[in-house]
Amino acid sequence: MIVAALIALFSGLATFGVQQILANNKKKAVIAECREIGSSLLFAHQDIGFYPKIGIMTFSRDFIDVNYGWEASHIMNLSITENAGRNTYNTWSGPYFAASQSRNQISTRFKHIVTMRVTNEQSGTVYDIPWPADQWGNPYVLYLFKFDPVLNSWEFITNLGEEPDYWAAVVSYGPDGVPGSPTTGETADLLRASRCLYHHDDFRTPLFRALLSSEYNEQRREMYSRPEPRIGIVDPGSDDIIYEIN
Length: 246
Known about the structure:
Elements: H1 2-48, H2 61-67, H3 82-91, H4 102-106, E1 113-119, E2 126-132, E3 141-148, E4 153-156, E5 168-172, H5 186-193, E6 198-199, E7 207-210, H6 213-219, E8 241-244
Parallel strand pairs: 1-7
Antiparallel strand pairs: 1-2, 3-4, 3-5, 5-8, 6-7
């Protein structure tokens, strides 16, 4: 009985150790992917003058032009002008980032590539864009801010051409899939989920919906109407993984 108890104890410790190693390896992989996406965003910014959507960076110039159009490339679902679109077509040197399909083939639950449904606010056009996801199957997101000297606060970029004192980061919401610290309780969980930069209405499918700029800046204004951005990315104890690219 003593031998059996020792075997069970050591087996439990070994299992816990393996789980910890796997969890740490996932976090390391996400950190590396965030850095790769951040570097790709910087290269794209140097070429076209703005940060494009993360999913768009996986495409070539001709593929974007034929399948999406250049308005789909701009941040915050805002259209770009016809002249800017032509300029972007001429200066685009993508794809800038390659998302591996291997995890999609191995795992049925945690996908490396998911679908982000994006609605352009000016034209109303809906795009379904393949989007790189973290080790837990949730889309990577890009935080872009501007500083409003009148309100003395950070806010999301909402208008074409706004790029004054922006602050940018590539973010994974971590193992729990929602931004912010690991608070408990149903109300806290709902509050944290409301801070996501996307909606995931049906958890059975890897389909996500990007929020509109009105949803950022009107419905969630209380989340960041402070002297520094606090949308779940600086909370103490948060499991979010953040890579600042600026």
